[in-house]
């Protein structure tokens, strides 16, 4: 295995990938993204109905996803309508694809 050069040890891309991967580091968050991808957009209650999680738990996971930029929320009266941020998902896919295979 070839050692990584010190100056290349941590790049901006590494930091971005780590942040996005951390946000996706819980299976409930992955399930929420899948739900949003299937529905296009959802309010929190719809996600709660689809997953075996409490409303407060879903809200916490949505906050993590939103803070990472993977999910966007738009206020619709008294509720927030969530959808995937396609640019952030594309960025994550690109960063993962850039990982060396060996």
Number of domains: 1
Briefly note the structural class of the backbone: alpha+beta
Biggest sheet: strands side by side, in what order?
1-3-2
Question: In the CATH scheme, what's the topology name?
Answer: Arc Repressor Mutant, subunit A
CATH architecture: Orthogonal Bundle
Distance between the termini: 9 Å
Name the CATH class.
Answer: Mainly Alpha
In CATH, the homologous superfamily goes by the name Winged helix-like DNA-binding domain superfamily/Winged helix DNA-binding domain
Extract low-pLDDT stretches. none
Our estimate of the beta-strand percent is: 5-15%
**Rg over alpha carbons:** 16 Å
Taken from the alpha-carbon principal axes, the silhouette is: elongated
Main beta sheet, described?
3 strands, antiparallel
Compute the average pLDDT: 90
Give short descriptive properties of this protein:
three-stranded antiparallel β-sheet; alpha+beta; Arc Repressor Mutant, subunit A; 102 residues; single chain; elongated; 3 strands; 56% helix
Structural summary, described in words:
With 102 residues, the protein is α+β, with helices and mostly antiparallel strands. 56% of the residues lie in helices and 14% in strands. It has a three-stranded antiparallel beta sheet. The N and C termini lie close together (9 Å).
């Amino acid at each position: 295995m070839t050692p990584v050069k010190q100056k290349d040890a941590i790049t901006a891309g590494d930091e971005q990938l780590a942040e996005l991967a951390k946000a996706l580091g819980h299976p409930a968050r992955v399930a929420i993204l899948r739900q949003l991808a299937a529905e296009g957009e959802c309010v929190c209650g719809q996600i709660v109905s689809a997953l075996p999680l409490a409303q407060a738990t879903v809200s916490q996971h949505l906050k993590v996803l939103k803070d990472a930029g993977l999910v966007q929320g738009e206020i619709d009266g008294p509720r927030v309508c969530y959808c995937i941020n396609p640019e952030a998902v594309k960025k994550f896919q690109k960063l993962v694809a850039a990982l060396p295979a060996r």
